[in-house]
Amino acid sequence: MAASFISDFRLMWYLDELKKNEFLQFKQLLKQETVQRGLQPIPWAQVKKAKRQDLASLMTQRYGEQPAWDLALCIFPKIHRKDLCDKASRESVLTSRPAAFLSSENAYRAHIQEKFIRMWSRDSFTEIPGCFDQTLTREEHESLEEYFTPRVPRRPHTVVLRALQRVGKTRFLMKLMLAWSDGTLYRDKFSFIFYLCCRELKQLRVTSLAGLISRERPDDSVPLADIVAQPERILFIVDSLEELECTLTEPESELCRDWREERSGKMVLSSLLRRKILPESALLLAAMPMRPEALESKLDHPNMQELKCFQDSHVKQYFCCSFGDRGRAMAAFSWVQNNEHLFTMCHIPLLCWMVCTSLKQEMERGRDLAATCCRSTSVFLSFMFQAFTPKGATRPSQQGQGLLKALCSLAAEGMWTDTWVFGEEELRRNGIGDTDTPTLLDLRLFRKYSESGSSYSFIHACMQEFCAAMFYLLDSPQDHPSRAVMPLEVLLLTYFRKERASWVFLGCFLFGLLHESEQQRLDALLGMQRSRELAPQLLGCLRILAEIEDPEEQVEFLLFFYALFEVQSDAFASHLMSSLREAHFPLRERPDLAVAAYCLKYCCSLRELTVSAIGSWKWPMGHLWRRGDHSRHSRGAAGDGWIRIIQSHLCFCRTRKVSFSCETGIFFEVFTSNPNLQHLSMTSTQLSHDEVWFLCSVLSNPVCNLQELL
């Protein structure tokens, strides 16, 4: 069977791998190689006009099956395609493996395919067949193939896939597993791929690498020792590495040296990542990009990659597919595109589905999107309102209100105990009975987490954060059945100091629910006024936090500003920001510009301002000031608008000291408008030749009163 495969097809398939210029080089070298070997050459006229299939036939007919194949293998490295020789070598190993091994591998692939199809189906309501489904896109497929292209010869592969929090990295890894299981990805690279979820590993008190592998193998006809005897044919995928808080700093004496050795899940994983067990295996680690340099320094020559979210074109396509009616879809898309915060949400697939669902239902009811879905908090509340309100009704039933309160109670407990997967005990403790879980699944607020047992999670971590924020407006934390749930003041301090990495939007949602329009909808949703009573308490807490001067006790400015932005109350923001003397705006993504522009206008007493662009984020219009540059992209122009607002406030504020750490001098021109600006620090700012020229022209302007430049 293998010989027939090689003789009939393999040479043709390998020639198909060559690019046009490589195929031409192959023909030239074929002529030279046959002469050097003393073989009778194929007439050049036939070789010159031959297509790939024709040339494979000509070579096989003239020289025989194996000599023709050997000839090709000799030529491939000379056209810089040694990878084809490596591929042939791997395929040779594959076809020579025992039948029992092949049977075990096929059984495992079938098991993985069945398992991950079931996992995918839990969120199947978000997919659009033929457009956004479980199939890898061409770009995704090409990226994954490149991940394990040799970068350092003879060195095991370690790939770190950095992904922003909650952008869908687990769904991406599920697509990878499905593509491998059906043979369309890594077919000749890996015989086995083992998926390790750190969220599940965290629950295991004692385990071993052998135990983790055995959990996933339905067929044990081949001893595990035979599988791990070929570690270079194994890929371990480690999802959500941040869940285990793996620092990879454990003393080497504590690490495992044997794949059968039992330790804590965290220690087994550290031993695998630091290549103390199965060092020749390949690793793909999915983690949030927090302190990636620390992770990178602990790994062996990692290939650092970044998982991309939905692109703008994908969001537009998703809207069109989701709405069906193209006119209504484009109206909704245009409206969202002009709202930086909602548009950013839409770059996360599941949240894009949620935004589409909310907007579509609001539009069908003839409501004004500007009034009902203008901010992230309002979209979540709209989704929740629609989920719990029966058709034809104006508010949830009493039973629905009770279930909503129980759901919010569960979410609050989860935030304080760092729990994202809930069992029957947690559900019952918070008032969710066995008959309630099917309802929450149907409402698409819950998803079944595991196939065996009754464990559930919210459809997205953001939904859990939103429900936890609602809890504080519905109930008193002192009455919560779990002692882990802390008072409001402790929540705010914990959130704004960023003491918990998993609390991403909790504070923003809490303050967003204080917006007047959300207050009205909460009254309609639950018929109560507790949220209005909390506003003065929240304002007082924020005031105290804003006045903290001790650097070790200070809050994260950006989180603080986002909370104010969600409230959208001039009186609220003015009351808090009017006495602020120092501010730091760390700009990580586009919506941060809108937040900075909104908050800066209330900083009338500001004396020192620091603006920094963090990570790989780029200024949307880095060369706005350049002469003759009049081109504008729609989203670039939107970013330009926020930059202009920031510039206008800088022109009139009494700030004396400004620090920039970014990739452009886009704010330099404010020094020609505001003589109060006397100190400028540009630490880590990278300036082009044109930007240096622009800075010089600013410094020579009579209005510029700059006295210190660092």
UniProtKB/TrEMBL annotation:
GO cellular component term of the entry, any: cytoplasm
GO terms for biological process, alphabetical: regulation of inflammatory response
PROSITE patterns for the chain: DAPIN, NACHT
Residue stretches spanning the membrane: none
Occurrences of domain Pyrin (ranges): 1-94
Domain NACHT residue range list: 157-289
Stored SMART domains: PYRIN (SM01289)
A GO MF label: ATP binding
Keywords: ATP-binding, Leucine-rich repeat, Nucleotide-binding, Repeat
Signal peptide: none
InterPro entries, A to Z: DAPIN, DEATH-like_dom_sf, NACHT_NTPase, NLRP_HD2, NLRP_innate_immun_reg, NOD1/2_WH, P-loop_NTPase
CDD domains with a match to the protein in the record: Pyrin_NALPs
Pfam families per UniProt: NACHT, NLRC4_HD2, PYRIN, WHD_NOD2
Protein origin, superkingdom: Eukaryota
Name of the protein this chain belongs to: Uncharacterized protein
Organism of this sequence: Spermophilus dauricus (Daurian ground squirrel)
Classification of source organism: Eukaryota, Metazoa, Chordata, Craniata, Vertebrata
